[in-house]
Write a structure and sequence with these properties.
alpha+beta
Length: 437
């Protein structure tokens, strides 16, 4: 993923098309592009049953279909590794064979402007995932029925539909998607469920996100003619509201499928940002059932146990925050308390503005990828001049590109806690994205 240095801010839904340039699956053209023709040709002539690769794929698919899979996460990993193995072979040992095959189908055109990796990945998805999707879904369905996740999610969604908006964390001035907008979002979720390609699924997810952003109204902004900007603290409650209103209780399968099948490079930017938001929303919704509520509010343990990248986070104490602390030194839990999210301070090098925003940052996201997400969200024109700093007291430390901010956050938190309680004189710590000196 590259954040780029252009001045145009990437809007929801545009990232995937930009990142997967030449990926035929995101093409909007009615006719077939060169990439699409190559993909069709590769599917028939490289992965057909009469070819060596095709027989290899057929044996793997048939074996997977014939077995009972109690662990869908393991199955998804095996399928992803199989496809990665074939792709790596084609671009290394079998590259000459691949190029000869593609040259015969290029209609005399050059292959230089074609994303060959995208062509191979798309063909592999069709050859492997299309027949295996029912098997993978069945395994997920059985697991979520067995562990009660489906039942809990359905009950929580029904309960949340009856809750006041403020109880879901939606501010009074914000009006969530209604009527036709909700229906349009629902259509994106239906298309996402039908697709076998994780790239297609992510594309439809981004489409739903785009409608959410477009349809949320701000009464105050409309009066003052100011454009609405949703941060994670406002966006995630909207996602929770939409999922509950539509009762998309199978959404957890979709997110796990995408995480398991999609190349990590395609989840390092804005696509991963919104995928993480949906994953976090699912875990919050599970805590909205009546038996998990206390005085109409989610407990701090509920928020602290929300997921990060599809995996449950540890229960951690709530820290006093800069603008969320009450007069008696306590505050209600917020999105930033979830381990999959992080409150980021942004300091602009252009107009010297400064503010805090909460962003979804998975535990396994490096500083480099975190910085790329921040640059996109805040429209930074020259991200190479900025760095992500850990600020503790008066000391600011620049993080290395290979560091993991969430792990640093967890380590710092652990150093401030004894037996589940904060040290009386704990030090404040936050992350700041600011110009380098």
């Amino acid at each position: 993923f590259s954040s780029g240095s252009g001045s145009t801010k990437v809007r929801p839904g545009e990232w995937l098309k930009h990142r997967a340039a030449n990926f035929s699956v995101v093409s909007r053209f009615h006719g077939r592009t060169a990439s699409q023709r190559l993909t069709v040709h590769l599917s028939k002539n490289a992965f057909g049953k009469n070819t060596s690769f095709g027989q290899w794929v057929d044996v793997f698919v048939s074996t997977a279909q014939s077995k009972h899979h109690a662990d869908p996460i393991k199955l998804a990993s095996e399928v992803h590794q199989f496809m990665k193995g074939i792709k790596d072979y084609l671009f290394n040992t079998g590259k000459r064979e691949l190029m000869d095959l593609l040259s015969r189908s290029s209609d005399g055109g050059s292959l230089q402007d074609v994303n060959l990796e995208a062509v191979v990945v798309t063909a592999l998805h069709k050859a492997v995932l299309k027949p295996l999707k029912p098997t993978i879904y069945k395994s997920f369905y059985e697991m979520y029925n067995r562990n009660g996740s489906f039942q809990k999610l359905r009950q929580s969604m029904k309960a949340a539909k009856q809750m006041p908006l403020e109880q879901l964390g939606i501010k009074d001035r914000l009006i969530p998607p209604q009527g036709p907008s909700l229906s349009q979002i629902g259509q994106h979720f239906i298309k996402m469920q039908k697709a076998f390609s994780p790239i297609r699924k992510l594309e439809h997810l981004m489409g739903a996100v785009k409608v959410i952003y477009r349809s949320v109204k701000d009464a105050q902004a409309e009066l003052s003619n100011v454009q609405l900007v949703l941060g994670a603290d406002d966006f995630l409650p909207m996602v929770i509201y939409v999922l509950c209103q539509l009762e998309v209780w199978k959404i957890e399968i979709e997110t796990e499928y995408i995480w398991g099948m999609l190349d990590p490079s395609l989840t390092a930017g804005e696509g991963g940002y919104y995928l993480t938001s949906i994953t976090g929303a699912i875990q919050v919704i599970k805590q909205l059932s009546p038996e998990d509520q206390t005085d109409g509010l989610a407990t701090s343990a509920s928020l602290s146990n929300a997921a990060s990248g599809g995996r449950a986070a540890s229960s951690l104490p709530i820290l006093p925050d800069f603008d969320g602390q009450t007069a008696d030194g306590e505050r209600l839990p917020c999105i930033a308390d979830m381990q999959g999210f992080m409150r980021i301070h942004f300091q602009s090098g252009e107009n010297n503005t400064s503010f805090f925003r909460t962003l979804p940052i998975p535990v396994d996201m490096t500083t480099a990828d975190t910085s790329a997400v921040i640059a996109i969200k805040f429209g930074v024109k020259n991200p190479d001049l900025y760095g992500l700093y850990k600020v503790e007291g008066d000391e600011a430390t620049l993080l290395d590109d290979t560091d993991y901010p969430q792990l640093i956050k967890a380590e710092w938190l652990a150093s401030q806690v004894d037996y589940g309680q904060l040290h009386p004189g704990f030090s404040r710590c936050f992350f700041s994205y600011r110009p380098k000196p």
